[in-house]
Structures are given as structure tokens and as C-alpha cells.
Amino acid sequence: MTDHSTGTDAEAGPGADAPTTGPGETDQAAGAATTAGTGTADEAATAVEADQVTRTATTAGAEEAADAPDAAALRRRRRRRRTVRIALVVPLLPVLAVLVALTGLRVNYLGDPADGTYTRGKDALWLGHAWVDGRKKDADVTALAARLRSTGIRDLYVHSGPLEHDGTLPASSYPNARWFLAAVHREMPQVRVQAWLGDVLASESPHGMRLERAATRAAVVRSTREILATGFDGVHFDLEPLHSGDRDYLTLLDALHRVTAAQDAPLSVAAHQIDPVPGFHSFWGTTTGHPKWWSQRFFGEVARRVDQIAVMSYDTIQPLESTYGGYVAQQTSLALEVTPPTTDLLMGLPFYHENRFGHWNHAETVPAGVRGVRLGLSRTDADRPNFGVALYVDFAAEEADWAAYRDGWVR
After folding, report:
1. In sequence order, what E strands does 212-321 have?
2. What pLDDT, on a 0 to 100 scale, did the predictor assign at position 53?
3. pTM across the whole model
């Protein structure tokens, strides 16, 4: 916005010239001589000139005094206009930053994925608790087997918790687990079943699991041994909200991996998204109290401690399919850069439909997610074998979601 300020300087008038002797000034000189009595004509003239200089100086001082308030007022007006401009521009800076970021994500969604960037047979599906609490029957398993036939799904994460805040897990939480495991192994012998365990952490409120307590971590390890003894092929952890840099979490993973490796069972985790720009989790945490993202470095530290890591690449706050797809492409690249080639990396796809802050159903679609995954894979490590997608979640999925997964990723 351009501002034009107009200032007018005082121009010198005729009275500013050197004084001259006019017709009326002779009388003034004579009067001065008479009054002085003993003064000469020259002295009278000198007195007149001095009087004129005094009057001129007085007039100039008055003009300067008159000009002074005008200049001060002008400066005040300029300050006010500058303040108004700043007040208008500053609130627009975050909006401008968001627009720039969205434009970058849309650009990131452009281009064609590389040939061959399709399923590698290492995809996964999150399943609800109904599969292990007695609500599902044999016919449901048969239908699930038909659904998964000719897809790339190798792992099922079936919800078998939640863990108690102290890390314990009552066996009553998964009463029909043995039945489900036997049914899946019979109907889908190529599929692994992992116990999906989780809890709310006391990282942003006084309530929840406290990983800083050694006793709690030890209880989680015992619960893992117990549920693996039930017959699960592996264990999948989802602890939230888990802040970037949590060393207690890394300590827990080290202990868990010793248990799972001894039983030749995969240790899998659900992971937060990675900072879209370095340090973004710190900024977001300061402004909202919920950091949400992990640093890329911390993501890599987690990935090195597990056999499988699934990025929860949904609930991204993206407003458009193109920006969501571009965001997923970016997340895929960031995760590939720091995940060891021996660790399975899975990118989450939204098989659910809600409209709320953080997730817009019209934007976070399976087609956009699949395209984003393929673009990120193409640009970073197109031939990586230990890579897949994870579908969240079975009980909210629609036929269109399954069709988009098959058409875009399975082929």
C-alpha cells in the first residue's frame, strides 16, 4: 500500500528582504532626531534601522513559531500512518506464510510417479477391538480373507488393549484373541497378526502413562511377553501424544526389542509425522501446547530401534487434496531419508471419514494419499523393498477407499 504525504515549506515574503527607506521613513527619522534633542540626523536614521531590524526579527520568530506546530503535527500524522500500516501488515504475515507453504505443497504434488512404485507386499491394516472381544465370528474372518485376497497386506494390527496407565494389560482385554489368531492363520496363512497396544501418555496433562517411571516401562515389557505368549505374531505400539526427543520412549523400545527379537517377533510402532520444516514441532508446541510432529532425527532414532514403523500420515490439517498429497509426498521422502533399509517403513492412509479441525474428508482422500506416497517414493528411493502403506481403519472404511487402494497402489 503506497502512502503519499504532502508537506508545505513556509515561503519568504517581501518583509524578509533587507529594509529600505520609503517615503514615510523620513518622518520617522526626523521624529527620532527631535525626540533625542541632541541627536543628529544620522543617529536618528540609525535608530529607525534598528527598530526595523527588531521588528523584522520579531516577525521571523513569530513565523517560525507558527511553523513549529505544523511540523510537529506532520510528524505525528506520519507516525500514526506508519503505526496503522504495521498493524495491518503484521496479522497478514502468518497468512502469507501459510499461502506460501500451501503453494509449495501443491507444487510438490505435481509430476508423475516412477514406474513400478506399487505395493511390495508389505502393507498393513489396523483392525478394531471387535475382533478379539467376542463380537466377530467365523463368517467375519472369511469375509476379511476375501477382502484382503490379492492385496499387498501382510500385517494386521488388531486392537488388543489399551494398556493401563501403570503399563499392565489384563488378559480380559483380549478374551477371544486365541480364536481370532487361529482363524486368521487358517484363512490367511501368509498374514501376520500383531497385537495393537497403546495408551494416552501424561505428556500434556496430569493423567496417563508416565514413561519416565522405570516401573511403568518394566510393566509394559511384561505385558508384551504375556501377549506374545497368547500366540500373536508380533506387537504394535501406539503411545500418544509422544513428544519428539523422549529418551524414556527410546529406552522402552530398546527393552521391548530385546524381548521381541528373542521370540523372532516383529516390533512395530505407530509414529508421529516429521517436522515439515526443521524445528516446527517446537514452534507448534509453544503456540498450542501440543508439539504433534517429531524431528527427523528423532524419527530416525525410533526407526533404528524397531522392525517396522508406520507413519500416521493423516490428520494433517490440509485443506485440499493437492496440498494433502503434496504433504504425504514430503513426509514419505523425509521418512525414507532416515529409516534404515532393514526397517519396514509404512505410510498411513486415511480409511475413515470425518470433518473436523485436523482432518477434512474432502482433502485427506485415499487417492491423494496413494499418489503422494508414490511421488515421495519415486523421488527418494524408488526401489526400496521394505516399504508399504498402512490402512486406518477397518471399521470406518468404505468401498471407495478399498477401490482407491487397489487401483492406485496394488494394480
Report:
1. 234-240, 267-271, 308-311
2. 47
3. 0.78
